[in-house]
Amino acid sequence: MTKIRPLAVLVVVGILCQTLFLQRQFSDGDDDYPISPPQTQQVSPTGGNVISNPHSIPKDDEMFDPIDRPMAARDIFTMPPFEVCGRMAAIPPEKEQQTINKYTSQCPTIVAYDDPIFLIEGQDPFGRTGNKLLGFLHALEKARKTGRIVGVVFDSWALPVVTNFFISIQDGDIEEWKHQMEKTFCIKIITHEELPKYTNLVRRDAKDIFIYTGDSDDDLEEYIDFQTYHIRNLFRHYNNGDGVNSENKKVRNMCISLDEIFGDGKTQQVYSVIHSRSFNSRPLERKSGMQQLARISAKSRCDPIAALDMQPEYVKAILRPLGMLEHPIVLISDGQDLSVAERLLNDPEIAPMLKFVPNRAKWIGGDITLAIMSTTFIGNPASTFSGFVAKSRVALGFGNTFMFRARNEKGEWENTCEDQCIFSKRIMRSNA
């Protein structure tokens, strides 16, 4: 008979303990539920990727089910590549999962009535779409910095702008949508009836929320990490034309411009986007835009006028070294300065490749996606639309974003600031 040695016994006991530990790790953490396998990634109705839990049960006073958040943090190896409208992002799934783990672990599972809340309320937004989206992201950052949770009043300015583009309400299921919003952004959506119950509120109007950032870059790395995390949260749930926004209005398809211009070839198409923001709707706006770009120029050393005028030579100096003059070039603009389009159409190198979004497909959501997912993007740092695009491209891992350019001593155009400068509070101030 073979004699069992003490060392073998210890090995067997160790294996059994490890097995029980792993089963415990992949359980839901609640004895009322059976042990379940690791969570898998599912595709949301809006076309983005969503981490979901079949045991998730929203509670009235909870950010999301405490069972749900730890599962999101555990699923380290099943995060699929990030895609938007069939085009792949460049951020590694492992890095994305690490960031999800980091920030979901910081989010409380319960919001009590006396918890500190940074409140978004009121129906008067500040500025255009870029300002509104940045305002929402700034509110999340302000709450993080001050140890608060963002509370969003249901009929405030923030929810329509978010749900016009992302996380639409599906099949009229407000509760499921509310649960998804709260879980995704670590916020609390509050009705007017509930609002008097909350006793520790900081209230700011839309303008104050937008401009709060200050001018210090002491925590720039963390700021970029947090902002890009939430930008990816937005694009993980981009709207595909199904559902309604928070005002019960039908949403549009964020992919429509890509679909219309490139059709079935959109997933692999190599192309550039130029965003022309002229600030020409009123003389005072033009002056304000020039002043804004001049101020950014003083900090970043970019040319104080080139990104406004988008002269053909400026564009070609970017695209020619990349070989991008041989591929489609799409111009999107605010429609206020036709001279930019006319100059590009009159250039013999650019004109053959120049494209415009068809009128039937033209809307700001389609422009946003078209620009963010382009191979090369040329924008105006004074525009919050261009700024949101540039930030989103950093969030998705893309390079070839050209916002800060100037001529060197040899007269050659070159970058004066890296892509991360678009997040710099010292350079961009409230546009950061």
Detail the topology: elements first, then pairings:
Elements: H1 6-25, E1 41-43, E2 49-51, H2 68-74, E3 83-84, E4 87-88, H3 93-104, E5 117-120, H4 129-146, E6 149-153, H5 158-165, H6 174-185, E7 187-190, E8 201-204, H7 206-211, H8 220-235, H9 256-262, E9 272-276, H10 283-300, H11 306-309, H12 312-322, E10 329-333, H13 338-345, E11 354-356, H14 364-372, E12 376-378, H15 384-395, E13 401-402, E14 405-407, E15 413-415, H16 425-428
Helix pairs in contact: 2-3, 4-8, 4-15, 8-15, 14-15
What does this structure look like?
α8 (220-235) crosses α15 (384-395) and α14 packs across α15 (384-395). The longest helix is centred in the N-terminal third of the chain and has 20 residues, at 6-25. A hairpin with a 5-residue loop joins β14 and β15 (413-415). Residues 1-77 have low confidence and may be disordered. The N and C termini lie far apart (76 Å). By secondary structure, this protein is an alpha/beta fold. A five-stranded parallel beta sheet has the order 11-10-9-12-13, sandwiched between helices. The protein has a four-stranded parallel beta sheet with strand order 7-6-5-8. Strands 1-2 form a two-stranded antiparallel ribbon. It is globular. It has 16 helices and 15 strands.
